Amino acid sequence: MKKTLLLLLTLITFSLKAQENDTTAKIDALFAWSHNEMPGVAVAVSIDGRVIYNKAFGLSNLEYQVPNTTATLFEAGSVSKQFVAAGILLLAQEGRLSLEDDVRKYIPELREYEAPITIDMLLSHTSGVKDWGALYSLTGWPRTTRVYTQELGWDIIFKQSGLNFYPGSQYSYSNSNYMLLVLIIERVSGKTMARFTAEAFFEPLGMTSTCWRDNHRAVVPGRSTAYTSRNGVYLLNMPFEDLHGPGGLLTTTADLLRWNNLFRNHLIFNKEYASDRITERKLNDGQGTGYAAGLTIDKVYGYEQIAHSGYTAGYRAWLAWYPQKQLSVVILSNYAQFNPVDCGRQVAAIFLDQEPHQQPALVPQQETRAPQQVVAAVEQGKILKKQEADLSEYAGNYYSPDIETIYRLFVQNAQLKVRRRAEDVFTLQHLSGDCFISEENGEFQFIRNRKGRVTGFKVSVSRAANVPFNLLPAGFHL
Predict the structure, then answer these.
(1) Residue 21 main-chain phi, psi, to 5 deg
(2) Cut 0.70: pTM above it
(3) Which of 78, 325, 365, 366 has the smallest C-beta neighbourhood within 10 Å, fewest atoms?
(4) All domains of the chain, ordered by start, with CATH?
């Protein structure tokens, strides 16, 4: 009897080991593209809180040929948002604020709009507040072209005369929401975001390698360097900005697995707020948004997926939780061409009774600041010609107090041009009526007075709609 039992246990152990080896081989195969002459990726998987896979591929630093390891720190991009959201929920759990509070209760610098914006609207991206990065792109200085600080981010948010939409009526992802949430946390707690999150989350959960990139010049031992590739050449692509909250979390795969264990053990949140973290928010009309508190809510292969991706400079990230399988998947990368979402879902597929589809792990970097309808119009050839004489009525200097920028419009070679600053000139293409577009710089809708004279325009890019510009009188100088 004992021999039979021993044999049975041996067979079970052998079978489990074989399954584990097969699983490891399948995950390894997804990263076969990576080699030690390129940036790479770190991947970790846990089930029921038990780590079953944790490996790293490629190089952390190309100049010194330093490999990525399971202890390498990466920047997590917008995966960071759930830590800000968790901070807000913790303050709510402690009774120090309410999610239904008007944001202006804590941030009176924010303008008063046509309806109050609640803290929960910031959490769910339904506030209508324009994205700070999109606004700065309209100045001619998009992210990665100059250093931005936390204060500069708040400053341009406070200058906005209008919203993208009526609060609560739509969903539109905006990093400004989480910039404002950071400010609320700091004002309510009386601590910096770094100190608050360290005391509330990182230290209690044993996340010893996690911190914020709140000083881009700080030396961070063990941090990977981020890269992009262009025409077959690797280039540095580091975030040299000090804004943090919407992004900026430096962490490891192991620490993010510890964080995801909150879904299992409820060490910090009570039942109400643990549920609130993952409850899909609704619009004013009851329509779902697919977003909770810094987390997306979705279904993949018939399983619930609670996740978020991250993209900052050349860093890429994916953190997902599949409650029906008690499964966590973490992916962190220092390569801009890496596709974290597709690759993360391929890893998950192995555990969700699916075969991975072998979608490309690397994709060309495609970034556009123009709204989708602008790009579509260009692709479909819906561009009209206007006579040079007609174009001249749009010429002039225009100023936007919302972004404190002058656009100089002029006609050259029968084309309407825009100059924002030296060496920053682009062409507007006529779409219809008084509407023009630039594939890189958005849609321009000109405004006329009762006499039919052009007096200004509103420009719209992705995440920032209808930013106003007014025609300056001839000879006027700011």
Answers:
(1) -65, -40
(2) yes
(3) 366
(4) 41-129+164-351 (3.40.710.10), 372-471 (2.40.128.50)
